[in-house]
Design a protein that fits this description.
379 residues, alpha+beta, 13 helices, 32% helix, 17% strand, globular
Length: 379
C-alpha cells in the first residue's frame, strides 16, 4: 500500500491519521509508520525516509526491532507453562534456577515478581554498556560501549549475573516495582529449564505461530531480514548526527527485547492475546493485575505480567507495551474490548538533548507523537 494510504473499507479519519504521521516526521523523526485498526477496519500509513543518505522511503509494512514489546511474548509463554502446571507463579525462582539466583534472594523472589518487575533485581544494561552508566546526567558518558558491543555475543547467564550482583533496586515484592530487563532474561532461562528447548524456539512455536504472525521472529544474526529501516540513535545529543545501529547483535537483549516484527503482526498478536487465543482467560486475568512500576525513564506506569495498562480519559483502557532498542522505538496498544488498536514505529530515539544538569529537554517530536497516539487511539 502506498505510504499514507488507507484500505477501501476505512472510514475513521484517514486524513487526520495521515496528517498526524506527517507531523511526527516534520517534527524531526526521519521515518515513522503505523497501523490503526477499528472494528475490522484498517489504516496503514508512513511518512519520511528509511535511510537519510539515500532518501529511501519508509513503508507501513517494514520490519522493526520492537524492543521490550518482546516481554509480552515471553510472559505469554510463561503463562502457557503455568497452565500446564510446569511453572507456579508464586514459587521461588531459586527452586528453578538456584545457580542464577542463589541463597535467600532465590527463596524470596517469585516467578510473579519477575513478570511484574517487583523482584528488586536491577537492570543489567548499565553494566553491559559501562560507558553509558549514569547517562544522560553524567558528563563523561559516551557511546564507546555501544559501538564496542555491536557484534559481541553475550550469554544470558553473564548478563543475569551483572544484574543479580548489582546493588538491589528494592526488596522482593515491594512496590513500586523497578523495571528491569534482568527479570525477563531470567524468565527466558526458566522457560528453557521447564520446556527442554531454547526460550526463543518455544516462544516461536507456541506464541508467534499460534498467533498466526508471519513477519515476527528472533533475529538469527546482527542483520534484520526483509524490508526494514535504518535505526538512528541520538543518545540525547551525544551522537550528532544520529548514528545507524540497524546492524547489531541483539544477544544483549534476548527474551527481554530482541524480537523483530511488523505493525500488522503486533496488532494481530495483541488482538488475539486479549481475545484469549494465546493464553486462557484465567491467565489473561493474571496478566492484567497491575502494580505501579518505575520505568527506565523514571515515570511510574501500571504494569501487570508483561502487559502495560494505559487509561486514556474519555477514550478507554488500553493494554500493550512499548519498546526501545538502539535506534528504534515501538508502541503497540489495544483497547480492552479489542476493537481499537494502534501500533507505531519510529527510526530515531533519544532525540531530547539535555540541559546543564543532564535533564532531557522537551522537543517538538514529543508533542507530535502525543498527537499521533491520541488520534490513533481515540480518533
Amino acid at each position: 500500500m502506498p505510504a499514507g494510504s488507507a484500505s477501501p473499507s476505512t472510514g475513521f479519519g484517514p486524513a487526520e491519521l495521515k496528517s498526524a504521521v506527517d507531523g511526527v516526521h516534520r517534527a524531526g523523526i526521519p521515518g515513522v509508520y503505523a497501523e490503526v485498526r477499528d472494528a475490522g477496519r484498517t489504516w496503514r500509513g508512513a511518512s519520511g525516509v528509511a535511510d537519510v543518505r539515500t532518501g529511501r522511503p519508509v513503508t507501513p509494512g517494514m520490519r522493526q526491532r520492537v524492543g521490550s514489546v518482546t516481554k509480552t511474548f515471553t510472559a505469554a509463554a510463561v503463562m502457557q507453562q503455568v497452565e500446564q502446571g510446569r511453572i507456579r507463579l508464586d514459587a521461588p525462582i531459586g527452586g528453578y534456577l538456584p545457580r542464577l539466583v542463589p541463597g535467600e534472594r532465590g527463596r524470596k523472589i517469585t516467578v510473579r515478581m519477575l513478570l511484574n518487575h517487583t523482584s528488586g533485581i536491577p537492570d543489567y544494561v548499565p553494566y553491559a554498556f559501562p560507558s553509558l552508566q549514569g547517562f544522560p546526567s553524567r558528563p563523561d558518558a559516551s557511546p564507546k560501549s555501544l559501538d564496542d558491543n555491536r557484534f559481541r555475543q553475550f550469554r544470558p547467564a553473564e548478563l543475569i549475573e551483572m544484574g543479580v550482583n548489582a546493588p538491589p533496586a528494592g526488596e522482593p515484592g515491594a512496590t513500586p516495582g523497578v523495571y528491569s530487563n534482568t527479570n525477563y532474561l531470567l524468565l527466558g532461562q526458566l522457560l528453557e529449564q521447564v520446556t527442554g528447548t531454547t526460550a526463543e524456539e518455544y516462544i516461536t512455536r507456541n506464541v508467534i505461530e499460534r498467533a498466526g504472525l508471519r513477519h515476527t521472529g528472533f533475529p538469527s544474526g546482527p542483520r534484520i531480514e526483509g524490508p526494514h529501516s535504518r535505526m538512528y540513535e541520538a543518545l540525547n545529543g551525544l551522537l550528532d548526527p544520529p548514528r545507524d545501529y540497524s546492524v547489531y547483535n541483539m544477544s544483549w537483549s534476548g527474551t527481554g527485547a530482541a524480537l523483530v516484527s511488523t505493525m500488522d503482526d503486533l496488532n494481530r498478536f495483541y488482538g488475539r492475546l486479549l481475545d484469549g487465543r494465546i493464553v486462557n482467560r484465567s491467565s489473561l486475568a493474571q496478566m492484567q493485575r497491575t502494580l505501579p512500576v518505575v520505568a527506565l525513564d523514571g515515570s511510574t506506569i501500571e504494569y501487570g505480567l508483561g502487559l502495560h495498562k494505559v487509561d486514556i480519559p474519555g477514550c478507554g483502557t488500553f493494554w500493550g507495551h512499548d519498546g526501545t532498542v538502539w535506534g528504534a522505538a515501538t508502541r503497540s496498544l489495544t483497547r480492552a474490548d479489542g476493537k481499537r488498536q494502534m501500533s507505531v514505529a519510529a527510526n530515531l530515539v533519544r532525540w531530547n538533548k539535555v540541559d546543564s544538569s543532564g535533564k532531557p529537554q522537551p522537543h517538538p517530536i514529543d508533542d507530535a507523537l502525543s498527537t499521533l497516539y491520541r488520534q490513533a487511539m481515540c480518533g
